[in-house]
Every structure is written in C-alpha cells, then in structure tokens.
Amino acid sequence: MYSLILHGRRLVELHKWRHLRFSLQNASPLSNSFSSSVAADVSSRDGRKGKNFTVSYLVDSLGFTTKLAESISRKVNFTDKANPDSVLTLLRSHGFIDSQISTIITDYPELLILDAEKSLGRKLEILQSRGASSSELTEIVSTVPRILGRKSITVYYDAVKDIIVADKSSSYERPQGSHGNKIRNVSVLRELGMPQWLLLPLLVSKSQPVCGKENFDASLKKVVEMGFDPTTSKFVVALRMLYQMSEKTIEEKVVVYTSVGFTLDDVWEIFKKTPTVLKVSKKKILKSAETFLGLGYSRAEFLMMVKRYPPCIEYSLESVKRKNEFLVKKMNWPLNALVLHPQVFGYSMEKRIIPRCNVLKVLLSEGLLRKKSELPAVSSVLSCTDVGFLNRYVMKHNELAPTLMAIYTKGSVS
C-alpha cells in the first residue's frame, strides 16, 4: 500500500490545472446597442474593485503573499472588511491562533463571507456543546476547514476526529467492520493527495467503496495504475465503478464494446475519460451504435465520436436524433462537423442550440458572417460561453444588436 501511495503522489504532481469560470446574468432585449456593453463594463470594474480589495485585505490582515492572495481572490472577493473582520474575530475568540486561521482561510476562503454569528458562530457552539475542548476543536477544524460549510457538522466532525486520532497513535485500534474500514480507507486516500472536498462526502458515506477492505485495495490499485488523478472527482467515480463491478461483469461489458468495433485499448481509454461508461447497459450500447449508423454516420465516425466524447453513448436516442435532424438538415452542417465535435449532442436544444442558431440564421441572411454564406464551425457557435457567443455574433453588429439580442432571448425567429 505504501508503494501505491508514493505512486499516487507522483501522479498528483503530474496533474495540475486551473479552472477559469465565467458567468452571465440572464439577458433581456436591448433598448439600444450600447446598454449591454456598458453594463458589462460596470460589472467588470466592480469585479476588479472587489478583487483588489480582497487581495489587499488578505495581505494586510493575514500576512499572505500577494501571489497567494491573488489566487484566493479568484475564489472569493468582497469590497468591505466588516464581515471578514467578524469572522476572524470569532475564530480568535474560540482559540484559533494566526497560523491556524491562515491555514483555514487558504483552504476554505469562502468562510470569510459567511455570516459570523448566525452560521459560523452557531456551528462552533454546537461542537463545543458536545464536549469538544478548545484544543481539539481548533485542531480538527484546522485540519479539515470545510466541515464548517457542512450542514451536518457533528457527523463530519466525529469522522474527522476518528481519522486524526488514528493518525496520532501507532497503537490505535480501529473499530471493527465498515467504520474501521472507512477510517483506514479515507486515511489512504488522503495520503494519496485526495483533497478535502472529495474526502468529506466519503467520510460520512455508508455505501461502497469506502467501507470495504480487500475489494477496496484491489480497486484502488487498478485506478492508480491506470493513471487517474486522485485530486479529481473522476478518480472517485472510477474507484466506485471498479469496486461495484465484478471481474466477470467488467469483462462482459468490454466484450459488448468490442462487438461494436472498439479495441480493448479503446475501451480503457474511454473509461479513463468517462468512468461511467462501464455502467451503460448492453442494450444501450448496441442501440446507440445502431442509431448513429442509421443517421448516416459510418462505423469509423461513430467510434471516433465516442472516443472523443464518451458521454455521447449515454444520451437519449430520441435526443440524439432530434439534434442531428436540426443541425444537419435544418442548419446544413455536414455530418463531419458533428463527428469533430460530438459534444453538441449534450447541449440543450431550447437553451443553447436553437437560440444561437436563430441568431446565425439572421446573420446568414444578411450576409454578415465572415465568409458571407458559409457556416462557421460548430464549435465556434455552440461550444463557447454565453458571453463569448454574444461578443462574437451579437454585440459586434452595432445597429442590429438589439434585434439579434431579442431573437436570442426569445429563442425563436419568424
């Protein structure tokens, strides 16, 4: 198991990423072509103001480096110090020292915008009323700060306490049965580098795989050897899939996938992208292949789509047919365009595909696209964010922008 942990740690170092998130509030028809851009500009300035204030506050109040403060400001920001001050004061009043507070805020910065008295204060009082000493309370919360954001805080607290006690004593005797297995297994996952936001649900889980033993070890070994990153939710899903399925069941499912044209290597590459493909029924796999072939795709194209985007084999067959009918026959995108970007089969017709394509129809009729009468790439129209789509296809057409926005928000065109 120790060699497994070392291997997992190396994997963590190989898997680093950043998530970029954008949001767009519900849009409404424009009264003029400038109102939306003005609102966006104001929102952008407010966002920068909040981010700058947050960075300054974290540096001045907690002694964080500017780099760390900027990283945290991407997760949470505020423009007033009243609430953050209240949170820090409350933590100090319960015995948390500055180093512990820094650890807590680094891991769970959202704490700074919680209601100090009604939310955070009440939870700390509940734990103290159950007999938690000041030193025990500060140690456990500092170890897993995110329990403060959970509703059933006592359940999480007790689970974390068991893990910490087990870590401290080499002579600690784990309880027998599933509870003892859980303490052991969660400790192993934590050693592999699994973050708290993934561990917390496992701590209070009464289901498999975290409560197993021998099968847990075997399943974990497979998942680690396949290269899954223990800091991602995909690792947990893969572990659960392998744990719940017997070797015989897995082999039978692989046979089904190979029967429609996939190689053995294909199957496991698909599993690594989307572990849930193993739970897709034999009937669904065969019907999915039959549906795509019936729509005019070659078997090679079907295999390519699933390898590029495995979830498309799980989609409702009626939904696939409807979207294909609209995009190919009504919008005139070639089948190959969808082969290159099978994610479109997962997009909402009503919320994304139809509104955006209605705008595209107008631009085509007016000859306002870059290549006049030629359709842009499917990904250019459907895969970008709402903000990206509006900037690319609506806001740049000054006088026509109000009409385009009305069509976009209405979702239909006469």
Automatic annotation (TrEMBL):
SMART domains documented for this protein: Mterf
Superkingdom of origin organism: Eukaryota
InterPro entries, alphabetized: MTERF
One function term, GO molecular function aspect: nucleic acid binding
Pfam families in the cross-refs: mTERF
Protein name according to UniProt: Transcription termination factor mitochondrial/chloroplastic
Organism: Arabidopsis thaliana x Arabidopsis arenosa
Taxonomic classification: Eukaryota, Viridiplantae, Streptophyta, Embryophyta, Tracheophyta
